[in-house]
Design goal:
Elements lengths: L6 H20 L4 E5 L26 H9 L11 E5 L9 H10 L3 E6 L6 H9 L4 E5 L4 H8 L4 H13 L6 E8 L7 H10 L4 E6 L16 H17 L3 E4 L25 E4 L4 E3 L11 E2 L5 H7 L2 H4 L15 H4 L17 H7 L1
Parallel strand pairs: 1-2, 1-8, 2-3, 3-4, 4-5, 5-6, 6-7
Antiparallel strand pairs: 8-9, 9-10
Helix pairs in contact: 8-12
């Protein structure tokens, strides 16, 4: 495929590049993920984390998180920082509502990522009443495809039922559905779009699977280069229709689709405006990034000192200009892509730009 960038596209990318350089220098934290449990009630075939049904580690105490939140310096505007409880499945924690209340009590925004298995109308009401601001739920297609992906015959019914309860909270809760596109659900995307619109869903997010975690040896999860380009065309077309808000996830530079498939141009903001605290206390950019890039641990380091003075690997990506990236014509705008797509020896695991170019 012809990936030559037009002059207007290059101009927009130059503006984005300059703005992102400022963000890297200022590194103001806007999202803090807390891996509040490793326990999960599903066994998703694409899971790239250490989550499993029986965690080897107990749930971290809420005091771990609150110690970090309480020690934020005065320069941190708590009303501009979203604390996102994730896992594992955060709803398996019996105290998750109280956790959220404590986050809100301290002036932060509260978000959550969930598989929807434990959602009921009463639970949604309870979460909203406790101050939940943002919610993301997995929804991977129709029943057969969703259950295949999530490893449970009940998963689709639970998530599907939750849509009605979430729709009823528009105005008090910001939420979206997240679909992992793979070879099994690829051909039903148009039907799925119409279904979600008919159910009243306003915001939809799509991502593809990286060759990591459980997905490494599962070819059904990986789209071909041609399918990836078709997916970009589908997203672009859907966005132009304006009937549902659709975005491709932050999975890397998209070449000719930059500015078309997302509300923003690509930047990997891990370690720039996003940080994560793992269940064992490790401090990272995002939860999907390899432990090689952890920057410290809240049990031995002060989180805010780490945020201010470390993360150099995240904020200056020149070290990523190697191998396939060394002579790439879009390095100026891509800067090596997403950090979570770097494997052993800083090897690039996947590149969406190459997929598009080679289709």
């Amino acid at each position: 495929m012809n990936c030559k960038l037009s002059f207007p596209r290059k101009l927009a990318l130059e503006v984005n590049r300059a703005a992102f350089r400022t963000e890297q220098l200022e590194h103001r934290l806007t999202q803090l993920f807390w891996e509040c449990t490793l326990r999960c009630n599903l066994s998703c075939r694409h899971c790239g984390s250490d989550c499993r049904k029986t965690a080897g580690l107990p749930d971290p105490p809420v005091e771990d998180l609150l110690g970090v939140l309480d020690s934020a310096p005065e320069s941190v505007n708590r009303h501009h920082v979203m604390v996102i409880t994730t896992g594992g499945e955060p709803l398996v924690r019996p105290d998750i509502v109280q956790v959220g209340r404590e986050i809100k009590k301290r002036g932060y925004i509260w978000g959550m990522v969930s598989n929807g298995m434990l959602l009921t109308k009463e639970k949604v009401d309870e979460l909203v009443d406790a101050g939940l601001d943002s919610f993301a739920m997995s929804f991977d297609g129709f029943e057969a495809e969703h259950n295949w992906m999530r490893g449970s015959d009940l998963s689709f019914k639970r998530a599907d039922a939750a849509i009605d309860w979430l729709v009823s909270k528009y105005g008090v809760l910001t939420w979206d559905l997240i679909t992992c596109v793979n070879r099994r659900n690829f051909d039903s995307l148009e039907r799925l779009k119409e279904y979600l619109i008919s159910r009243g869903v306003r915001m939809w997010r799509i991502f593809t699977v990286a060759p990591m975690g459980r997905a490494v040896d599962d070819p059904e999860l990986m789209l071909s280069n041609e399918q990836f380009v078709q997916l970009m065309d589908f997203i672009t077309r859907t966005r132009q229709e304006g009937r549902i808000g659709l975005n491709f996830a932050c999975e890397g530079f998209l070449g000719p689709y930059e500015g078309l498939a997302r509300d923003h141009y690509f930047n990997c903001i891990a370690g720039v405006s996003v940080a994560s605290i793992l269940s064992d206390g490790s401090i990272s950019g995002c939860l999907s990034i390899r432990s090689d890039y952890h920057q410290g641990n809240i049990h031995t380091d002060r989180f805010w000192d780490v945020w201010e003075n470390r993360f150099q690997l995240y904020r200056n990506r020149k070290w990523m200009k190697k191998d396939e990236c060394r002579a790439c014509g879009v390095w100026r705008y891509c800067q090596g892509g997403a950090m979570h797509l770097r494997g052993d020896g800083d090897r690039m695991l996947s590149c969406n730009y190459l997929k598009i170019r080679n289709a």
